[in-house]
Amino acid sequence: MASNEQIELSREVDATQIPSGIPHRLAAGTKVRLMQALGGSYTVMTDMGYMVRVDAKDADALGLTPTSAAADAPQEFSEKLVWDKLRTVYDPEIPVNVVDLGLIYDCNIAPVAEGNKIDIKMTMTAPGCGMADVLKSDIQRKISDLPTVKELNVEVVFEPPWHPGKMTEAARLQLGLDLENSPFPMH
Q1: Terminal-to-terminal C-alpha distance of the chain
Q2: N or C: which end of the chain has fewer CB within 10 A?
């Protein structure tokens, strides 16, 4: 969902500048344009020309209704459920989830007393991206809400370095990347 329509914030909101990760407070009356609404957050372009991410809890300030969780009903824990939840985390600049972007390098699930321990290794598209902590927090929040998750560790790593060849074919097609002439190995 994106719109060229200008939106005027109805109240003050906290936001995160993209890609620096610097926190900002946008005043009521600030004019923005919606660039992306995925994964429970909103990427907007401010009238000052920079992109920020606004959390779902502040959707009303944008005149929007927050997207509800697809499945509020309790679900049985499974590896598929973990991966499905990871697919609800989106890069705020790219309309592709972190799994299909190839940012999740490892997801290890192990049983512990009365539940599961999950260790996730993820990376960013660029080592200097300030959104690492924001995406890491999104993952922590979404995965820790799953049933029987007792321990969770999300680590941001930069080895091996990310490259477009780590994306799924569907993600590359969605972004219009040339699959035939890519210098990167396909999965």
Answers
A1: 29
A2: C
Tokens of 171: 């993600």
pLDDT of 68 > 80? The answer is: no
Q: What is the distance, to the nearest Å, from the Cα of residue 84 to the centroid of all Cα atoms in its chain?
A: 13
Whole-angstrom CA distances from 91 to 53, 111, 166 are 10, 30, 15
Distance CA 131, CA 162 (A): 15
pLDDT in tens, 101-143: 999 999 999 999 999 999 999 999 988 888 899 999 999 999 9
**Which residue in this structure is represented by tokens 């940012």?**
103
Show the tokens assigned to 89: 């985390």
Q: Where in the chain is the domain with CATH 2.30.30?
A: 6-62
Residues ≥6 apart with Cβ < 8 Å to 31? 6, 7, 8, 9, 46, 47
Q: Which CATH class is domain 79-174?
A: alpha beta
Pairing of strands 149-156, 41-46: unpaired
| Residues 4, 26: Cα–Cα separation, whole Å | 19
C-alpha 101/C-alpha 172 separation (Å) is 8
Q: Where in the chain is the domain with CATH 3.30.300.130?
A: 79-174
